[in-house]
Design goal:
The structure is a homodimer.
Chain A lengths: L2 E12 L3 H12 L4 E4 L16 E2 L10 H25 L10 E5 L2 H17 L4 E3 L1 H7 L9 E5 L2 E2 L2 H14 L3 E3 L3 E7 L5 E7 L2 E12 L9 E2 L4 E2 L6 E11 L7 E4 L2 E5 L4 E5 L13 H14 L7 E12 L6 E4 L5 E5 L5 H18 L25
Parallel strand pairs in A: 1-2, 1-11, 2-8, 4-15, 11-20
Antiparallel strand pairs in A: 3-7, 4-6, 5-6, 9-10, 10-11, 12-13, 14-17, 14-18, 15-16, 16-17, 19-20
Helix pairs in contact in A: 1-5, 1-7, 2-5, 2-7
């Protein structure tokens, strides 16, 4: 196999998912010459391609590390502006919708979970409003008649597939380069002081040079080798967490994002309704398991019985990149030009713009925002042996 | 629009579904020069394309008109030989499998239904065997642990999609002609003593002449006009009854066809498992409704919980041709060369070979088998006014 040198770039971003594309976009906006390398077609394998697109710092505050909530709130604050600018540049709508979220309790156990969440929200000073069953059904008449209560939160949503369409157009407008179907196999420092990125496409190898490299390959981030170290170039404790979602179509029967502790339903203005999502530790299993489809339909129907009349048009499967502590890894890896942004788990769509902005600060201005400190990739490195043990 | 004359045939069969193809096959075997005209691609709209392929005279004897059971038993007796001959001619396997059916009761209400069916079976002298819950689970270890009892019956199955692949090959071998994507709009007697069949394909009209015409267009049989009468050429009280099925894939976890009074699961030797079927009077609604998908998965999982691990690969929709009395219409329509074979409702795959054989007897030998008498198309014609009322 002969190897050709493709080109060189100031910054190469490995991974054309939502996080990689957002980072490339932020860097290109700051005038950097950026190249994105994606192993499949854009959107084909991206976890965002099957994500519901909830921007939910408030709805999940009880489940999240407080430092992750801080990052999510920062993302939330910039999201509307970020999507507007993207639409202005590309002409592609992103489906950003701030109608809000209703978290619905169908029975007493759910109600206890809502109360627990509400306590957290009050403690964090997050806006949330308790609704009676009647008030919730006044807001959303298609909610199940027998519900026990609800919480209303200002969490927003976006259509991740539209983002995955808009971002490549934005990159093109800004003069960035995008290689699809090109798999990165290895990354190594080169003799010339930059990085040599080995790629493969249709059996043909080629090499790309870049002064800086950002690995944002989601659940696949461990699959890039370091020829020097003989291990993954990003040796993080990464595993894929499979998620199944359903895509329905028809009349829009809910206006808010509707959640219960067991399921969420995200309506879009084009008649789509996304129901999600399973969480399965089964590796890269791309099968749409009948049991998960059944569970999602059952729980969704309990909350909004009218979904039974909608058209089931897609059973989707995606792989969330999960690190051992379920927090992202964003920052420098080797003390030089190799960076990473992965491990966003269930929050990739939500955290993409803030990750992109703060990583661009780091790359362009050498400024590490305090918000990123908890997410240093080095936190998993084995501790150096203590003096006493020698 | 200019009209060209395509060709002429001894017999034209309108409709390339399972019944139309089987009739054409039987006629071609007897040396007739046959042309089949199908409005879509073979298998694309055919009800058989989403049918499970149960050959179930015994399992449904309590639900069926006794005269329909007679026809089904005649079909059952010839099915194995028919499929063997088809495979010998074409090299295409049909998935014919006589392992049998287990009808499973999950609770006392089901058990009462099983007892009712068993009484009917004994009355008709049909073979059936009562099994204890333990005996049923010895046969099929993946059955739900808490089942109440079961019946074993020798009902067989076939893969309707393979039949829809084999039959066109058989027709080609036998020198018959097959027009796909050609819609028949009207049928009328011509001046020359035969029939003129008006067709349309990609906006181009053409005319086909045939001495005899068999309308076997399933749920669409009413959509062919009679320019002379100003009404459908086959003015039967026909409606489509929508059916949704699910197609799963994976390890084969059951050997028999497994049914409950609420659902059936049909395993194939290639790892496919068909779960069916909804019955919906909603016209030609091609949407795969989420509620029906949910109901099928729920009932199937109750009977065989292990289906949860299988891959859901298809949600299918088909339209069964139902007449007012839910019995087929097979026979002569106009006292001359126009015949019909439609209205097979839930039994098209099962009844296709016997329908084909008996209709070929009628066309080639002018012999009306007594089995067909209850299914005369004329039974819906308004009665002639009685003398007394004049």
């Amino acid at each position: 196999m002969t190897t050709s040198t493709v080109a060189s770039a100031e910054v190469a971003v490995v991974g054309g998912g939502i996080v990689g594309l957002a980072i490339a976009h932020a860097l290109a906006q700051r005038g950097r010459q950026v190249t994105v390398v994606e192993g499949s077609r854009i959107g084909e394998r991206a976890a965002a391609g099957v994500a519901a697109g909830m921007l939910a710092p408030s709805s999940e505050v009880d489940l999240s590390d407080p430092r992750l909530t801080d990052l999510a709130l920062a993302a939330h604050a910039m999201y509307g502006e970020w999507t507007s600018a993207l639409t202005a540049l590309t002409g592609v709508g992103t489906g950003y919708d701030a109608t809000g979220t209703l978290l619905v309790a169908l029975h007493a156990d759910h109600l206890a979970i809502l109360q627990h969440l509400y306590d957290f929200q009050m403690e964090r000073g997050l806006p949330a409003e308790r609704l009676s069953a009647k008030a919730a059904r006044d807001e959303e008449p298609y909610l199940a008649p027998g519900l026990a209560g609800a919480l209303r939160m200002p969490d927003a949503q976006v259509d991740p597939r539209r983002l995955l369409r808009a971002l490549p157009i934005a990159l093109e407008r800004l003069g960035a380069t995008l290689h699809e179907g090109m798999r990165v196999t290895a990354i190594a420092p080169s003799d010339g002081g930059d990085y040599e990125i080995s790629t493969e496409r249709d059996g043909a190898a080629s090499t790309l040079h870049a002064a800086k490299v950002v690995v944002a390959a989601g659940a696949w981030s461990r699959q890039i080798a370091s020829p020097i170290l003989g291990m993954p170039v990003v040796p993080l404790p990464m595993r894929p967490v499979k998620g199944q979602i359903l895509r329905l179509r028809g009349e829009r029967i809910i206006q808010h994002v509707v959640r219960t502790p067991d399921v969420y339903l995200v309506p879009r203005d084009d008649g789509e309704l996304v129901i999600g999502a399973s969480m399965e530790d089964v590796g890269f299993d791309e099968r749409s398991r009948a049991g998960a489809v059944h569970d999602l339909l059952r729980e969704a129907r309990r909350a909004v019985p009218g979904i039974a009349e909608l058209d089931l048009v897609e059973c989707g499967v995606g792989f969330r990149p999960a690190l051992r502590d379920h927090l992202p890894a964003i920052g420098n890896v080797d003390g030089a030009g190799l960076l990473v942004a992965t491990g966003h788990f269930r929050n990739g769509v939500e955290l993409a713009p803030i990750t992109a902005r703060l990583l661009a600060d780091l790359i362009c201005d050498d400024r590490l925002d305090p918000l990123l400190e908890p997410f240093a990739p080095g936190r998993f490195a084995p501790a150096a042996p203590a003096e006493a043990t020698r």
